[in-house]
Amino acid sequence: MSDDPHLSGLSGTIVHDVIVPARAPWLHHVAAGRILRIVDLEGNQAVDFLLYSAQDDAERYSAQDTVAAQGNLFLRQGTVLRSNEGRPMMTITATSVDYHDTIGGACSCESNMLRYGHHTKAEHACVENFLEANLREGRGKRDIVSNINFFMNVPVEEDGALGIVDGISAPGLTVDLRAEMDVIVVVSNCPQINNPCNGFNPTPVRMIVSA
Amino acid sequence: MTQPLANPLAARDHARSMAGTLVEAMPMLPPVADDLPADVAADELLWEETIAAGGYATRRLARGTRLRLIDLRGDACASMLLFNAEMPSERLNVADTVKVQWNAYLGAGKLLLSDMGRVLASIIEDDAGTHDTFCGTSNAKTNAAKYGDGSNSGPYPNGRDRFLLGGAKHGLGRRDVHPCVNLFKGVTIAPDGAIVPQVGPYAPGRSVVLRMEMDVIVIIVNCPHVLDPREDWTVTPLRATAWRGPATPENDPIRNATPEGLRAFQNVEDYFRR
């Protein structure tokens, strides 16, 4: 038994285990049946997350199909992440954070300019990471859709007001995802420094795949 | 249709005899509308079409064009996608739309933003108030589960497959049908995140008017809301009317309503600075 607390409760063989540096992209193929664990190493680090079917990457994660199917905006334990064709792609089998976001989307140079001012145009952003990673496999801008933000907190008020607010994650908290089909996981370890999604301080996260 | 159509001329005459047929769901060419706003001349009218229950329509609209949608009988659901017509990889981004405006509920004064920091369209009038940025539309699987069938060729077509056909007519494909907004059928969000559908049926004649802020491709699908709780596939025709209008001036109150929106308009103005 490992005494690494980040591996606690993971059964099976660890087939992949990496630290994604702060601000960096990550792309990995995860076979059906395997578990991906994401570890928020230092706490309140948004992990922007997209999924594509490995067999046919025009089928991809759909935030709208996912929330409509479960009748709730928040991603919790048991949430099935659905594709744009309504098929299960991954299931959240465990999470030590109560809920995760899928309505806030990814930061981009362009949306940062709207939200904070044109002076932020040169800052690194999640869409840059999504593009960089996807371009390696022939996908491009048309393949960027509304994503998941693990460890990010976006409440919606009664009048529809919404915003990225202080996170509810903490150092060492995790989310476990079981692949329901062969998937391509594309992650941006969010570099945002203008809102609380990373506690104004982007930090590394750990990705563990068990078979 | 019992007459023999054994030769091309008989078939031609038969086909031509249909001319002038009027049905509820069809485009009017040239467009005619007797209820344009008082300040809109008849020759500014661009598009007049009634979209069938379960149908779709798509069109390229120039910057400044006003698009009015009317829920004729109270049960239409206008699911909408927008693209920059000259560069369709730029498209409606629902997440940016709600995040940049710090609000998820659509209504008069709200902007529909692209993924390039620009405003594709503004909502300039809205007497419906029940809209949805969260749920997207139905697909073949959801309709098959709910109604027994969801195919384009069957009686209960689904929204995604309608969007795919509409997009295909502009050369777009499966990678281009992305998250949409729904007009006329809405949702509200409970404190625990639960999605509460608001599907009516409503009084006939509710309308929304959009102003195109860029040259756009619009695809409108009129299928039941994906969370419509009714057992029967229920939707009624939707009317689309568009007329020419000026590009948004610098003193426009919607342009200047918020600092975020103003920057989106400034980015549009910069895009057209050429």
Verbal overview:
The complex is a heterodimer of chains A (211) and B (274). Chain A is 12% helix and 28% strand. With 211 residues, chain A is an alpha+beta fold. In chain A, a hairpin with a 5-residue loop joins β5 and β6. The radius of gyration of chain A is 16 Å and the shape is globular. Chain B is α+β, with helices and mostly antiparallel strands. Chain B has one domain. Chain B starts with 7 loop residues before the first helix and ends with a helix. Chains A and B meet through α1 and α2 of A and α2, α3 and α5 of B.
Global morphology of chain A: globular
| Structural domain count of chain A | 1
Oligomerization state: heterodimer
Order of helices and strands of chain B: HEEEEHEEHHEEEEEEH
| Domains of chain B, number | 1
Nearest-integer average pLDDT of chain A: 97
What structural class results from the helix and strand content of chain A? alpha+beta
Give the biggest beta sheet of chain B.
6 strands, antiparallel
Largest interface: A-B, 48 and 47 residues
Shape by Cα distribution of chain B? globular
**Strand percentage of chain B:** 15-25%
- Beta-strand residue fraction of chain A: 25-35%
Q: Tell how many strands the DSSP assignment of chain B holds.
A: 12
Strand order of the largest sheet of chain B: 1-12-3-10-6-5
- Major sheet strand order of chain A: 1-10-3-8-6-5
Put simply, the count of helices of chain A is 3
Helical residues, percent of chain A: 10-25%
What is the CA-based Rg of chain B, rounded? 20 Å
The count of DSSP E runs of length 2 or more, i.e. the number of strands of chain A, is 10
